[in-house]
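Are you able to produce any protein sequence you like plus the matching backbone structure tokens because I've never seen that pairing?
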Amino acid sequence: MKKKSASQSGPARRSPGEGGSFKLRVLLAFVFCLAGALIALGDPSDGLSFWHTNEYYQYSAPQRWHTRVGKFQFGNPSTLGNISARAFVQTGDNVMIGGFMVQGTEPKRVIIRAIGPELTQYGVPDVLANPTLELHDGTGALIASNNNWVSTIIGGIITSNQIHEIQASGYAPGDPFESAIIADLPAGNYTAIVRDVNNITGVALVEVYGLSHETNSILGNISARSFVQTGDNVMIGGFMVQGTEPKRVIIRAIGPELTQYGVPDVLANPTLELHDGTGALIASNVTVTVQ
């Protein structure tokens, strides 16, 4: 195999040392047109650019020149970070139920929290005094539970004391009567149920935070079901988009459809508002009209 220098090639091409940086749009055309092997040359300054060399190689057949392409990488895909729901928690069928999905090929390490007393510092009235937390898998089986995060309940997928892990996570609840579970969850659907240990009512928050940063496992959709009231006791769902690109999502408020699953006293005409991190209203919907 004979190597051809840049001066022997066609139009001049910039080497990595000359700062040749090209966006993804150019990359696709380049890779589709030329057969080459990928080599690692050092990361570009952003997640979408790539470098190429101006080295060309000739194989046995005349006029068959092939380029060698430098390392390229795509930008980090945007994912959902922590997900949460706040509602007025009652008893029986009207406890708070939060659902989430783990997607990917590796287990996802998460911390799940049930927050009540801590909400008073944010001006939330009538908080749930002693929230307990249950974690169920996609079959409905109870796989973990907690009542007061400073006292681990061993059982199911929880096999050792978690107090120090919760403290080290950076997400330890601010009140000892609040609950938390750390779990390594394989892909699947999960449900977190929040109620008061003494079966009283109050406002509570259920949250899920991803603790591992691997790209092969992510938090998927979030859902929450509770008894929606008025004023401070409407249902509030929160989520975070993480990454370098926009994340396309659909946000739904479901009421009458729940009757087919045996849920009583459904909300007849739910409305939906979307607010950004500053609290500004950025979108709203009352009724979806099917054309």
About this structure: Confidence is low (pLDDT under 50) at residues 1-53. The longest helix spans residues 24-33. The first strand starts at residue 2 and ends at 4. The two ends are 64 Å apart (CA to CA).
